[in-house]
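User: Please predict the structure of the protein below. I'd like the answer in structure-token form so I can feed it into my own downstream comparison script.

Assistant: Understood. Taking the following sequence of 522 residues as input:
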Amino acid sequence: MNLPSIRLCVAALLVSTLGLAVVQRSHLWYPSIAIRAQKATVPIGLDFLFDARPTLSDCETITGRIARLVLAQCKSCEIVRAECAPSIDEVGRQVLGTVPLPLPAGRMANGVVRFQADDPDTAMAVCRQTEQATQGAPNPVTCQPPNKLRPPLDPHPAWSGLHALVLLLACAAAALVGWLILRYEHLHAHLSHDGVASGPQKVHTHPTPRVGGLAVLAGLLVAVGVTLVAGEGPLDREFGLLLVTAVPAFLGGLVEDLTKRVGVLERLMLTMLAGALASLVMGAALGRLDMPWVDQALAWLPASVVFTAFAVGGITNAINIIDGYNGLASGFSIIVLMAIAVVANQFGDSLILCTALALAGALAGFMIWNWPHGRMFLGDGGAYLTGFLLAELAVLLVQRHEEVSAWFPLLLMVYPVFETLYSVYRRRAQNGSSPGEPDNQHLHQMIHAWMLARAGATRRSTDAIAMNSAVAKYCWAQALVLAVMGVLFHQSTGVLVSMALAYCLCYVLVYRHLARLRKNAA
């Protein structure tokens, strides 16, 4: 099959998936359970209402789990209602909100339970007993008295021993697979090696395997296995689905690593296809950017799905663009992932927390072989897998938690995003070249050139190779500052926008300064 035919097939798949995502995108399902019990001679009612779940299966899992737990603890209890509603009314929104309720209510990490009885004191007493009984449980209840303003839903941290295990085992698995790749390098060198003169952006002096993405994937698969063994219900299913949707992006990059024949446009379409798949099977579509005129457009589902696919494809390719020096893209991604994990933990989102930690662990295991000595490269497969999951975590975080500003993940990733936009402008407007053509004028390459000029070294000298690993530290530093500021102000859109614009201005000023130094040294 020739290149135009492949391009046409990928385009057809992309359009079809976008269409299916628009037509068949699942509702948000709200788990709701009503339970009645007899306490002495007083009837007691417990009404549970939980935050929305992205799929009906996840919603049914929650209702079934709560029903089993209650019946196991209360022999006189009876399930009056257990349903998954595609929407909630104004009363339901008030229950999940902060307004005073006429009944005692217990806060949980992902919902609210109301206590009803003819005697208000009895209802309050049961609420207090429930609070005491659930202390130390995975999802404890915090009792709130009636007719008082309630604090915002502040879920208990999702961090647990499971997440620590996911992080460590993903790291170990990636490191092991990386060792196997290097140990048997002679068997696959004819396919996996990145030549020393294969592009203007290359700075290594020895042929090097560029299939580090296989090590990262291995770490993620082990992490999914851990959640399956742990029996975490919706978590293992959603985690697995998220990795399945990454397949087009990963395979497009891996085939390019092995054949060097997959064009930039084809890889971009494959990453967009992966984004459309995530919207189709997980309902992961951006409905807001916290800009009124944009949010009005994204309220229309087709616009939301198409924009999300385009944004996911753009961020995925942006991570690939900054993958130019040892440890740069992987170290940058770990910093971003840990910031996302911190915020996800604050909101008790186990899926986002677990995925972020698993990917961070897998990248750390890969970095054992990549930084500082560059014995293995991430490759397009690894860069696209990492970039896609970063983009999807950003989409899910904004979609699931309205308290989080849409500019929080954008600030975290403003460096690769603005690097991509500025490169397109530079190549097209200033140089008249194609935006897809590789060059050696990215910011990280300007930093490397500045380091060489300061040391009086040449691009292929021993010092230049040693400086390769040092370049990443400059980019990690800016990522760390943005990550800390983003976490501190993750709910303040105005502050985040100001910091993002300030970074873009600083980027342009620094870039032009380095470009002048490079030109003068030439």
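That's the full token string. The two ends are 45 Å apart (CA to CA).
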